[in-house]
Every structure is written in structure tokens, then in C-alpha cells.
Write a structure and sequence with these properties.
The protein is of the alpha/beta class. Helices cover about 50% and strands about 15% of the residues.
């Protein structure tokens, strides 16, 4: 059985994105030692308990300046959009969030960022 993150990663791969799912922030931090993605879609349940330490650190790290940080949350999470922005996320996608909409958002963001380059 596929976990939600794994199914999103699979569907994004089918749309042509390089994507990987992980179930812990620790695994993500290990992956980032060897891989520099253009976007991180982070389930807020993974980092809420530690006060979004990873996201706050990434938002201040110049190595992440070009990385889009998107919070993936439930329909009624404890955090408001303002809390999400304050933690360091660039965007927010609430569940249910159709993968086609997520893929369109990513395509649009990266297309417009390459148009500016």
C-alpha cells in the first residue's frame, strides 16, 4: 500500500518531475546532503512537533534560496497560513490537493523563474 507522500511522488514523476518521498525529517536531511531539489513539499505533521526547526533553518540558509518550500497540510490544521509563512514556507497546499493542481503550480513557478533568469 502506498502512503500519501509516495503516491504524490509517483504521480509527479509521471508528470516529468524528479520526486522522492520520505517519511521523516531525518531522512530528508540525509537526502539533502547529496541532492539539491528545486522544491520540497513537506507534510507539516513531520515537523510540527519540533516547531518547524528544519523549515526555519532552511529558510535562513542561503543554500535554500532557490528551493521552493511548500507546506502540505490537512483541511483544518492547527496552523494558519500566516503561521506557515512565519515558519519559513513559501507556499501552502491543503488536502485534498489534486496532484494535477500541484504539478501545474510547480510548472508555473519554475517556468516563470526561468523566464526571469
Amino acid at each position: 500500500m502506498c502512503r500519501p507522500g509516495e503516491s504524490i511522488a509517483l504521480l509527479l514523476r509521471l508528470k516529468g518531475f524528479v520526486s522522492v518521498a520520505t517519511s521523516t525529517i531525518e531522512n530528508l536531511e540525509l537526502m539533502l546532503e547529496h541532492w539539491k531539489p528545486r522544491a520540497l513539499l513537506i507534510d507539516t505533521r513531520l515537523c510540527r512537533a519540533e516547531g518547524f526547526r528544519f523549515v526555519r533553518k532552511a529558510a535562513r540558509d542561503s543554500a535554500f534560496n532557490a528551493v521552493l518550500l511548500v507546506a502540505m497540510t490537512n483541511v483544518f490544521p492547527p496552523e494558519s497560513p500566516g503561521d506557515i509563512r512565519e515558519a519559513g514556507f513559501d507556499g501552502l497546499c491543503r488536502r485534498p490537493c489534486p496532484v494535477w493542481r500541484l504539478a501545474d503550480m510547480l510548472e508555473s513557478h519554475f517556468r516563470s523563474s526561468t523566464d526571469r533568469a
